[in-house]
Known about the structure:
By secondary structure, the protein is mainly alpha-helical.
Amino acid sequence: MEYVEERRAAVEDHLRATLSRVEPAALRESLEHVTFAGGKRVRPTVTVLCCEAAGGEVWTGGTPESTLAPAGERALDFAVGIELVHSASLVVDDIIDRSELRRGEQSAWAAFGYGDAIVASDGLLGEAFALFDADPRATTTVADAMIELGQGEASELVAKPESEEAYLRLARRKTGALFRAAAELGAIAADADDEVVAAFGEYAERVGVAFQIRDDVLDATGDAERLGKPAGVDDEMDRPSVLRVTGRSVEEVNALADEQRDAALAALDRIDGPTGHARDYLDDLAVFVVERER
């Protein structure tokens, strides 16, 4: 969809401009390696679209070629920030998993070594919080998400879930938290009230959980060439995938992802905001995450 691609392209441009200012050059190189190795920019695009779906004006003329509105400036800053936080978390994930590939390219630790990879993760977080600093609600939202993400990573390593309920709690922390933050940041950029911010957050958290469930299925059933990263990592690393925890079949697990999709759409329906392309894409995204093949 051209509408969404315009917004994704605007995020990409803003991301490149942000990282081009990083010093020293060696740090900039490692941050760019991590950030531009691929990725669909789903979270930052969600931030921009949630801003619009919450009634915020991103471009004064309606297109990326026009001058950014104040809400648009905030939305793009927040969008880039959440993508940098996500990228930082992937650096750590790859170290934990000892994965040499990320999106078909060398992971940060494989390219630069463990020390430089950790420095890159720290650098990404520093650049991100510099973008959130202008709005206390944004800073709090992302800090809360990072706490949840850390709890999820820790629990996965030392207290593996043994039930469906525990698995879903882990998925909310590990994946849903950053999706929630991405959507809430968009609503915050639009100066939405707390109830609307929370509804967008619930929508995105459910999308994130559905994404994680589908990711587990793809890890178990996909191949490395299609995924752009090693397959079968959950079994190799003895990680708690939804298939292993619940003992359900692939079909039953896909149905569990469908339940999360339906709950996400129900949360979105509670928002009395403008209809249009942004809202349509958010609907489509909830469907896409349970149908994707990589």
